């Protein structure tokens, strides 16, 4: 497997490990390692499915990936950024939350004219 490539079975398993927490916000949160594996796996899957460098997706403190074809960004703050917390990202990645709903609620920030294109690639691992 190429450097940075993800194993779809591992990503599905990582998401399954946090699935109860995603479906029920009163469920106890999984451990940091489980959340990190699911966040990194889904974000890297997005980067693999939508290769490019025009949009940066950030899920601090776990991962930042560049995706979507277009002009390459190399220095400073990227012009197109999508940023959210781990739980919101995983809700988006699994289809349990719509991109527009996350934007409207303020749980997701999307800046730049191309940031919204990320929605086209969601969900990554439907549950």
Shape annotation: globular
Which oligomerization state do the chains in this entry correspond to? single chain
Tell me the series of helices and strands, N- to C-terminal. HHEEEHHE
Broad structural category: alpha+beta
Q: Gap between N and C termini, in Å?
A: 25 Å
- Hey, roughly how much beta strand do the residues contain? 5-15%
Largest beta sheet: what is the strand line-up? 2-1-3-4
User: Overall mean pLDDT score?
Assistant: 93
How helix-rich are the residues, as a percent range? 25-40%
Characterize the structure shown.
- With 127 residues, the chain is an alpha+beta fold.
- It is built from four helices and four strands.
- It has a four-stranded mixed β-sheet.
- β1 and β2 (63-67) form a beta hairpin.
- α1 (8-23) crosses α2 (32-49).
- The longest helix is centred in the N-terminal third of the chain and has 18 residues, at 32-49.
- The relative contact order is 0.18.
Please give a quick description of this structure.
The protein is α+β, with helices and mostly antiparallel strands and 127 residues long. It has helices at residues 8-23, 32-49, 86-94, 99-105, and strands spanning 55-59, 63-67, 81-84, 108-111.
